[in-house]
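User: Now give one protein:

AI:
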Amino acid sequence: MNVRGRACWLVLTALVLVAGCERHEADRTHREQSASDLSPVDVHAGAKGAAVELYKARCASCHEGGVERAPHSVTFQMMRPEAILAAMNGVMAEQAAGLSQEQRVVLAQFLAGQTLEGEKLNETRPVKMCAEWESRFDFNRPPAFKGWGITRGNTRFIDGATAKLPADAVPRLEVKWAFAYPNATRTRSQPSLAGGAVFVGSQDGTVYALDAATGCARWTFRADAEVRTAIVVSDWALGDTAAHPSAYFGDTGGTVYRLDAVTGQEIWKVEVDPHPAATVTATPTLYDGRLYVPVSSTEWASAADPAYECCTFRGSVVALDAETGKQLWKTWTIPQEPHLTGDTNPAGTPIWQPAGAPVWNSPTIDEKRDRLYVGTGESYTSPASPFSDAILALDLKTGKLVWRYQATAGDAWNMACMLNDRTNCPAENGPNFDFGAPPMLVTPKGGGDIIVAGQKSGYIHALDASTGHLIWRRKIGLGAHTSGIHWGMAAYDDVLFAANSDTRFLGRWAGTPPPGLFALDTVTGGQVWFSPNDRPCPPDGNPRCDPGLSAAVTAIPGVVFTGGYDGWIRAYEAGTGKVIWSFDTARDFETVNGSTARGGSIEVAGPVVADGTVYVNSGHLYGGHMPGNVLLALAPASP
């Protein structure tokens, strides 16, 4: 199924869940209120009611549980309204016949939580394009990072020559420029630096190459769906003006792209998994002429519909030829193919198994052993797979499994487990302890390579890189569906820096430290220091006070950076954990676009540093957190 077909298949079927599925009402109410505050879309009661009534009148007879594999409405938070509207005006035109354009727009905007700027599918708010001199690609500035995890080992450590930000200059950081993402309520694509440009993706599918000095756009490219991965730029010889660097990324429709990094022209695009719920959320890893693509899915949400035949998706890693996009190998995280069990759920819908173990993290490269490492998520079906909630070591050349370490056995969960009607909920019912953060390959000074992996359970696992055997395990948080260690840790100088995202929604800490930043000894797992994010939270449910630290941690010599659900970016002294600088991003900013952007919760992509500038995205309208649409560049003020 192509992306457009997948989008239309998602559009009207999921409205059943808007009309009839019990969801987390507090999160949904806050999401709608936050969206109204940001003014990205009209979600008042009348518009919501109109959308539901349109569905009941025109779509329910076919789509109220009558379509196989109908996803949960949360899926639409990963789509742009243009894709939904295109489906109703295109391949689903017969089903949408009789609906006015205004009615179609109401449906598209409500489902996506974003505004269409008029009825033209490609219209966006103005973006300031660069002058000719600002658009020149600088071949003396090769890529600053190897990918999402900064290094091939995903250690998220930026060396001093790249960062060019002395520790004593960090307290003087201030906004250099701000960029507003058009039609966005969340910002999840970690900035990449190459050629004097900042490369980022966006919620509406636009990829930008922004001038690093000014924030103007050198070029833009429109993908088929949201781009939440980082943009990986291929390397070149310093000063080689004849080089042709490429930019690689994936979108939430499951498509991977290769662009010309200088011009933004498309070279190829490939769909890496035909499953309708497949998606690419983690950044592909580029190494030695191959692009290693992690594949996750939204089927955990599709299972909320009792009529959905749960479940058939398996996570995977796909190796593509970086030059041509040709698939070289594909390794499923669950070796067995899904099959009908012969049983049905209480609604009479057939049950499949096994399924799940999505890959939410960017592959780690082990050049010495010719391996890559990834972490997997929970199973979607019962019985839980022995390959879920696990670290997998694969052969780089063949994709063959070398070893497996399962951190949490018996973890089967999907969205149905969070509803009053748990029709498709597996018997295990969780605990949903994914590995969202990529495994890190670290080499302590004493020798011996270690794989260190943080989990939503709150545990950090240290494994022998050769065998996968457990060396030590340390619990730093309570852990829950949305807690523990989320998107990435950092390591350097035999110290591991891990952020705990436990939030106030968990109630009492039950003896577990509150959220904050931990420093641990890499060799033993012993605590070096702990810096709590202990701002008191009022009882009014204001998410601005949520103290969880979910975004990936980033380190430079002497300093560690975190971003929080509360919208604050913080810099810690690496040796002591003392906060030496903090900045509230949850506010309005005048931008280079000429419009006002708003920051919000900082989630997924952590701050990155290059050439004396800190880059951070702010805004994450999801799960009750604060929306936003701003990219900030911060540099030290003159002393």
Q: What stands out?
A: DSSP finds nine helices and 37 strands in the chain. The mean pLDDT is 85.
